[in-house]
């Protein structure tokens, strides 16, 4: 496991960014991709613009037009063991990971600079099929852009400063990639401070 501030490469990563390569075996990745092939993805529409990536959300979903979270379809069976393992990695109980999202990035699809919705706190992400570069830059402050390669079968955790004081983005991917992210709900009293 690599903790942001202990990262030994040239660039340190923000506190609270924890990355582990080879979280999944190749066989586990193949199984997940097989299950994902049967999933119905939806286009992601935002202010009249349709993003190149597609998504599906389980448990709880965030509505970008109302900025509210709503109940979504239950987690499919194939995601439950992965949620258990992701929770173990994140040091939390599996049931606290109330939201599960699968993103499909065809070649050329990016995700722009953002911090995740304030309803959520810790975010755990698993990468499948091909690598992508995640960039991180301070949120509403000047600062250097950092970058980390998310290898296929790797996992990352965003919490603490990495979650709240930094934003992240993924430049257009060269090859198709999937990510599975799990999110915890932020306690209500803390949301006002976010
Ligand atoms: O694909 C990823 O790993 C990043 C996903 C992300 O940033 C998001 O869903 O907000």
Task: Describe what is shown at a glance.
The protein is α+β, with helices and mostly antiparallel strands. It is 16% helix and 42% strand. 2-oxoglutaric acid binds next to β7, β13 and β14.
Strand order of the largest sheet: 1-2-12-9-14-7-4-3
- The poorly predicted ranges are 5-10
Number of strands: 14
Instruction: Give the integer mean of the pLDDT values.
Output: 92
Ends distance: 27 Å
Question: What is the fourth-level CATH superfamily?
Answer: Alpha-ketoglutarate-dependent dioxygenase AlkB-like
Biggest sheet: strands, sense, closure?
Answer: 8 strands, antiparallel
Order of helices and strands: EEHEEEEHEEEEEEHEEH
Number of domains: 1
CATH topology descriptor:
Jelly Rolls
In DSSP terms (H or I, runs of 4 or more residues), the helix count works out at 4
CATH first level: which class? Mainly Beta
CATH architecture: Sandwich
- The portion of residues forming beta strands comes to 35-45%
Notes on the structure:
By secondary structure, this protein is of the alpha+beta class. The protein has a single domain (29-186), classed as Sandwich (Jelly Rolls). Helix content is 16%, strand content 42%. The protein has four helices and 14 strands. It has helices at 26-36, 80-90, 160-164, 188-191, and strands at 2-3, 17-20, 42-46, 49-58, 60-63, 68-71, 97-105, 111-114, 120-128, 132-138, 146-150, 155-158, 166-170, 177-185. The strands form three sheets. The protein has an eight-stranded antiparallel β-sheet with strand order 1-2-12-9-14-7-4-3. The protein is globular, with a radius of gyration of 16 Å. The site of 2-oxoglutaric acid (AKG) has 9 residues, from strand 7, strand 13 and strand 14.
């Amino acid at each position: 496991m690599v903790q942001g501030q202990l990262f030994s490469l040239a660039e340190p990563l923000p506190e609270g960014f924890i990355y582990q390569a080879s979280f999944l075996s190749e066989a586990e990745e193949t199984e997940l991709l097989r299950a994902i092939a049967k999933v119905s993805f939806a286009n992601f529409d935002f202010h009249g613009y349709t993003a190149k990536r597609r998504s599906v959300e389980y448990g709880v979903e965030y509505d970008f037009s109302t900025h509210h979270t709503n109940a979504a379809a239950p987690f499919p069976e194939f995601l439950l063991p992965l949620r258990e393992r992701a929770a173990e990695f994140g040091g939390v109980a599996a049931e606290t990971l109330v939201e599960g999202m699968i993103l499909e990035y065809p070649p050329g699809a990016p995700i722009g600079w953002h911090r995740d919705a304030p309803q959520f706190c810790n975010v755990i992400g698993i990468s499948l099929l091909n690598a992508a570069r995640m960039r991180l830059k301070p949120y509403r402050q000047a600062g250097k852009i950092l970058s980390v390669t998310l290898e296929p079968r790797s996992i990352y955790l965003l919490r603490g400063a990495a979650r709240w004081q930094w934003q992240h983005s993924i430049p257009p991917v060269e090859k198709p990639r999937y990510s599975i992210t799990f999110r915890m709900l932020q306690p209500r009293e803390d949301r006002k401070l976010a």
